[in-house]
From TrEMBL:
Organism from which the protein derives: Streptomyces lavendulae subsp. lavendulae
Full-protein residues shown: 484 to 770 of 770
Protein name: Cyclic di-GMP phosphodiesterase Gmr
């Protein structure tokens, strides 16, 4: 596949694109067997109350321990699983596993209030079994619905009609929390917020990044102030993601954010660490 003069660069780019396509293809084909063989695992990242640094719960983040490529992050395979529909059984497994884990934390000394957040992709949202699966998983584990939070991205709900919102409304009515993930990146229709059965806004990492400059990016500060005010007036809690430094944490706490998540507090890790952190004062609080 020869290219015109000066094509070396293009050939190289082509070869890279080919390699990526082959990998993508291979990964896609390997997904179902990987699920059967138990190659997926979940890391948990603490969600921390900003006012005192105590651990509120954790977000479940799936990884694939690939026999050839090592540990792959969700960005490498969730889109593939979405396209092939494997996200439905994979997502069901993540839900089951995380809910069981949360119940385990709660049974351990000091873990009674720990909760778990689980991500839902658009295909899962459209899947007719969502409510029944969730109810079954909660019942068989004994976890209270209020200890589960399902995270849905804002973009997945853009233009959502009542039919799409119905399952989320039913889950919310059962007491499951619904969080709007990556909030502020889509075309946030703020008026639309009232229609959505959500109780938490998860402010996207890009706003957190704006808090890193000294002084913080004044536009981002204004936006976060506005979002927090709006959220609180609608009785929604605000979680911030991607907090990497004490400066960001202090700024976001001053702006009234309720809970936070990020490397500053802890990286995603093994489930036992969540319980250990909930018992210790090891989580840093900005002064
Ligand atoms: P998300 O739900 O917005 O999750 C937060 C992402 O930010 C995670 O990436 C987390 O590891 C990363 N993160 C946390 N703290 C920091 C920080 O301080 N700095 C930086 N730079 N990053 C931080 P991860 O684990 O790679 O997950 C990426 C996305 O994959 C998630 O974004 C979520 O949308 C999706 N995902 C993860 N697990 C699942 C799952 O079980 N099901 C579905 N459908 N999607 C999932
Ligand atoms: Mg999330
Ligand atoms: Mg997020
Ligand atoms: Mg994100």
């Amino acid at each position: 596949r020869a290219k015109a003069a000066g094509g070396n660069r293009f050939e190289f780019a082509d070869a890279e694109a080919d390699a990526r396509a082959i990998t993508r293809h291979g990964l896609t084909n390997a997904l179902p067997a990987a699920l059967e063989r138990g190659e997926f695992f979940i890391e948990y990242q603490p969600l921390v109350h900003m006012h005192d640094g105590s651990v509120h719960g954790a977000e479940a983040l799936v990884r694939w321990s690939h026999p050839q490529y090592g540990v792959l992050g969700p960005d490498r395979f969730i889109p593939l699983a979405e396209r092939t529909g494997l996200i439905v059984p994979l997502g069901r497994w993540v839900l089951e596993e995380s809910v069981r884990q949360a119940r385990n934390w709660q049974r351990q000394h000091g873990g009674a209030t720990l909760r778990v957040n689980v991500n839902l992709s658009p295909t899962q949202l459209h899947h007719p079994g969502l409510v029944a699966d969730t109810v079954r998983v909660l019942e068989s584990s004994g976890l209270a619905p209020g200890s589960l939070c399902l995270e849905v991205t804002e973009s997945a709900l853009i233009g959502a009609d009542d039919e799409l919102l119905e399952p989320l409304r039913r889950l919310a009515a059962l007491g499951v929390d619904i969080a709007l993930d990556d909030f502020g990146t889509g075309y946030s229709n703020l008026a639309n917020l009232r229609r959505l059965p959500v109780s938490v806004l998860k402010l996207d990492r890009s706003f957190t990044q704006g808090m890193q400059q000294q002084p913080a990016n004044p536009v981002d500060v204004k936006i976060v102030e506005g979002i927090v005010a709006l959220a609180h007036s609608l009785e929604l809690a605000v979680t911030v993601e991607g907090v990497e430094t004490g400066a960001q944490a202090a700024q976001l706490r001053a702006l009234g954010c309720d809970t936070a998540q990020g490397w500053y507090y802890a990286r995603p890790g093994a489930p036992d660490r969540i319980h250990a952190l909930s018992l210790s004062d090891a989580v840093p609080t900005p002064s």
